[in-house]
Amino acid sequence: MGDGQWLRLVRSVLCGLLAPLFFTVSGLAASATITAVDQGNGGVLVTATGTFDTCTYCDANGKNCSSTSNGSIAAYLNGGLVCSRGGSGSATCTATLDRGSLHGPHSYSATASDCKGNSSAGTSTNFDNTPSITVTGPSGTVTGPFDITGTATFKPTLNATKGFIRGYVNGSFIGDKSCSTEICSYSYKELTSKLYDMNHGGPYTITMTAYGGGTSATATGSFSVNKTPTVSVTAPAGNVRTPFDIIGKAQFKPTTSTTKGSMTAYINGGYVGSKSCTMETCSFSYKEITGNLYTLPPGQSYTVKLTASGGGSSASDEKSFFVEDLIPDQGCPEPAPDVSSCCNK
Known about the structure:
- By secondary structure, the protein is mainly beta.
- The protein contains three helices and 26 strands.
- The strands form seven sheets. A five-stranded mixed sheet has the order 12-18-17-14-15. Strands 20-26-25-22-23 form a five-stranded mixed sheet, with no helix packed on it. The chain has a four-stranded antiparallel sheet with strand order 7-6-9-10, with no helix packed on it.
- A hairpin with a 4-residue loop joins strand 2 (31-38) and strand 3.
């Protein structure tokens, strides 16, 4: 074979290899659809479907043809990939999202790609995941240690933890409750194994905030505390002879403190003595405290006062008394109705 023949042969082979392929397209353009549906159980089902065109490819002579309808579909949430899938003629991808992370407006899009190009579709959701919360106790006026209670209702979520409740009293943090159910109760006693105690006063404010689903809600309640004790002076009263005991009694309101209160005695405004009380019902006796009776000059009037203090409040009681003159021993009076009753002769 001569050089010219070799050259013509090489040229023929190269032209065959480099000849462009021609293709034809049949059918409509690629299409995409997407939906995001609340399932009611905390899940949001995202479904994206793509329908693909059919393309036929041939060589430069319109021979050796082949067809394809392959393509892919992809779904996105706020620009982030959610799911994707390929197929022939059509394809569908699905994903279940947590409604708990979808509070407020969110945008979804789907893109179908095939031999002809791309096609997109979109949808949106706007879920309100705001929980509800109420303070159930205490209310009104309490007189002793109490529980702090409330109830929250959270929106559905796939998360095992539905939310949590945070409590405050007058701005002071008292505890968090993690909630594994959509309806959740808060109890300070359950959290701490004790009751809450406050001093006399008010109104005090309880604040509870429920957090869940990417948002929160707050409720408040108010109450007052009456810790005023009661107290009474038993003795001295009326006419007395010196020396004498100073006696009284107090009733304190319940408290978690070991010391329930204290009692202090005064005579004519002067301090006499005090007693710390570890029981709600507490008795005062000057003789028990000091081991002695109290002595005052006779022939005068006095005022005894007992003050009971406890739980941030106090109360007092007063009584007036007169100390009689001492009568000297002058023997048996004459005549005596019963001599044996006062004299031994």
